[in-house]
Amino acid sequence: MYFDGAANHSGYGIGVLLISPHGDHIPRSVRLAFTDRHPATNNIVEYEAYSGEWKTRDVKLRPYHAYLELLVARFEDLRYTHLPRAQNQFADTLATLASMIDIPADATVHPLLIESRSAPAYCCLIDDMEIDDGLPWYHDIYHFLRLGVYPEAATAKDRRALRQLATRFVICGETLYRRSLDGILYYVLDRASADRVMREGSCGSLRTTYGGHMLARKIMRTGYFWLTMETDCCQFVRRCPECQIHGDLIHVPPSGVACMTSPWPFSWVEAASYARLTSSGVASFIRSHIICRYGVPHELISDRGVHFRAEVDTLVQRYGIRHHRSSAYRPQTNGAVEGRE
Prior knowledge:
Blueprint: E1 2-8, E2 11-19, E3 25-31, E4 48-50, E5 53-55, H1 62-72, H2 89-100, H3 121-129, H4 139-147, H5 156-166, E6 169-172, E7 175-179, E8 185-188, H6 191-203, H7 212-222, E9 224-225, H8 229-239, H9 241-246, H10 279-294, E10 299-302, H11 311-319, E11 322-325, H12 331-334
């Protein structure tokens, strides 16, 4: 049993989650409507454990503590475990739900049903609408080229799309071919034949260890075609164990890699000479020689020269760099040497 309580500006509520030995989840959410007569706090419905014993901090909790002692005798084995909110999210959500809503007394609330969807709603709608009639995907194209007829339920937009699609196909004898831009004819395959060709291309005599796009191009060079061959080949390569075993390893660094012009142990900012030091020149040097090559530093330490002000201050504020200035190094400035008369 997971239990939690919630008290906020909208009201007070408690949430309980019961889990049976078979794994059934039974949630229960209750709103406390007596708070106008008996003011409650968040501790009214919660306790804290110290040294294995239950103690109460507030006098208002003593009746609850006494009632809890009566309920303990009804259980054969009872153990209390304090869980942080991150591990008790279900009960915390139920308690918050009960405290945030105000249900009228005459309203009927049905049990709350929580479902889990593994795909977007439009994908489920497509699966429900598509009916497998056992015909190949090119059935409408073949009949349009052979007989010049449209499907019965085709709209004007569907007919226009079918006419445009049919211009890329040609019938030779009784066989349908796909005509490429350079005039090459590809034999059109149905779903079963396409699966057999993909297996032959990856595991048979046409065995290849390339990716899905390369497999699709190799099948086209062999002289076969179907409408979704690029997508089908990529999905087939992901499912094929041999393709994954013999495929190239993907080496990805665990973090972003910066371009280095010298080995890491010896990398340092190169010196630059200027005829006259200005704040704009120093800001340009920091931007081009430090930030662009090594990234944004955490902090910048400089002296108190005037060329480290103005545009340099604007630059460090823009990139969030901490700018620390060293103490004065002239004896007359820091008071180490006093003037003599």
